[in-house]
Amino acid sequence: HGTMQINENGHLMIGGCDTVELAREFGTPLLIIDEAEVRRRCFEYRTVFRGTGIEAETIYASKAFLTMALCRILKEEGLGLDVVSGGELFIAQSAGFPMDRVYFHGNNKTPEEIKQALEAGIGRFVVDNMQELQLLNYLAEEQGVTANVLFRVTPGIEAHTHEYIQTGQSDSKFGLGLANGIAMEVIRIASRLPRINICGLHCHIGSQIFNLESFRKAGEVMMDFCNEIRRELGIEIRELNLGGGIGIPYTEKDPEVSIRDYALIVADTLKKKAFQLNLPLPKVINEPGRYIIGPAGTTLYTIGVIKEIPGIRTYLSVDGGMTDNIRPALYNARYEAIVTNKAFKDPIKTVTVVGRCCESGDMLIHDLKIPEVEPGDILAVFCTGAYTYSMASNYNGLPRIAVVLVNDGEAEVIVRRETYRDLISRDQIPARLNL
Ligand code: LLP
């Protein structure tokens, strides 16, 4: 992955930094973000439609992982941002991210969040439902502004991925149904609202998708819908956001999908449809999260208790777990790992890597092959940039871990480790409990 190497001591290096030293300097668990890899992936996405005749823009899905430092990198790399809450918007605002490049998602935006976004002057609202549309028009009127919107529709496509991360099917809490006519109805109403400027459509068919043909189907359904909108309402749709969702290989068993293939399939689909229906070619908006940040992250843990249950298995406990990476517990997600201070040693046994939480489901890796290990060795779990830190918790009173950005031999903390003080910093004791 990325800028990883093994140095002469048999230590894993990332971004020119020795991970064993990073663990010593910053402590563990530690999330390492490889800056060059993030930038490379941003660039790859930003330029992926080049030469296809399709105008494209890429916005990063903040939910995968967001910090102020990352906002600065994304800004420099020319990406936009998809935020789903006032909180994510606030992080972007605090980092000085250009607000015209921000898209606001969410199936239940609050009036306060909509006001915040209108005041900030964000680029696009991705309208999810009728209630939101009315509220947005009302609040925009109040502020004397116009809101630029995309409509999120559910194209009725079931991408083959884990049930919890499927989103494109008709029975979904997200978006406006196409088949049942709700999407058309909402857009019809929007076309009469004075403070709503209809810019385009959005769909997101799921996450960790390997079958790129799902995107062909989505493109076709969306273009057909653009055609219907033109026929019924006389409105030309200029922007098509096809969501994110490109899968990444977490283990050797997962395929590697090429986003160039994705772009070629989408471009081909849209061009054919545009020609067939005599529609203008819309601008495409890509909305990846995982693809940008997943492979750029690596988590370091210190190995603690090694428990051998004779004839059954060996449990290898590390100093983090479901509090810093809930994906194995939640989605049965698989990861690969190595012992970073013994990167050259041959694997001799199979262990089950578990976290330190009081929860049997707190497993990180089933059946990992590793060399002889002892407490204090450092385990590096790969591909942990996406949906790990952003889904972290303080379960069992574990402080959230630190995040370090590495590049060219330099390592800088971008999120400091939580302290025990942080754990109680928002607690208040009612006076009557003072004895
Ligand atoms: N756009 C929308 C509207 C989304 O809902 C999502 C992800 C994305 C873009 C980015 O998808 P990506 O490119 O990262 O696949 N926590 C789960 C994933 C949930 C994804 C939610 N939506 C996981 O850890 O696998």
Automatic annotation (TrEMBL):
Family matches, as Pfam families: Orn_Arg_deC_N
Gene3D superfamilies in the cross-refs: Alanine racemase, Lyase, Ornithine Decarboxylase, Chain A, domain 1
Pathway note: Amino-acid biosynthesis; L-lysine biosynthesis via DAP pathway; L-lysine from DL-2,6-diaminopimelate: step 1/1
Single GO MF annotation: diaminopimelate decarboxylase activity
Cofactor: pyridoxal 5'-phosphate
Ranges for domain Orn/DAP/Arg decarboxylase 2 N-terminal: 36-293
Residues the record marks as active site: 358 (proton donor)
Binding, pyridoxal 5'-phosphate: 245, 287-290, 387
CDD domains (alphabetical): PLPDE_III_DapDC
InterPro entries: Ala_racemase/Decarboxylase_C, DAP_deCOOHase_LysA, De-COase2_CS, De-COase2_N, Orn/DAP/Arg_de-COase, PLP-binding_barrel
Enzyme Commission identifier(s): 4.1.1.20
Residues with PTM N6-(pyridoxal phosphate)lysine: 63
Keywords: Amino-acid biosynthesis, Decarboxylase, Lyase, Lysine biosynthesis, Pyridoxal phosphate
Enzyme class name: lyase
GO biological process entries: lysine biosynthetic process via diaminopimelate
Domain of life: Bacteria
Annotated residues for binding of substrate: 290, 327, 331, 359, 387
Assembly, per entry: Homodimer.
Protein purpose: Specifically catalyzes the decarboxylation of meso-diaminopimelate (meso-DAP) to L-lysine.
Family to which this protein belongs: Belongs to the Orn/Lys/Arg decarboxylase class-II family. LysA subfamily.
Protein name: Diaminopimelate decarboxylase
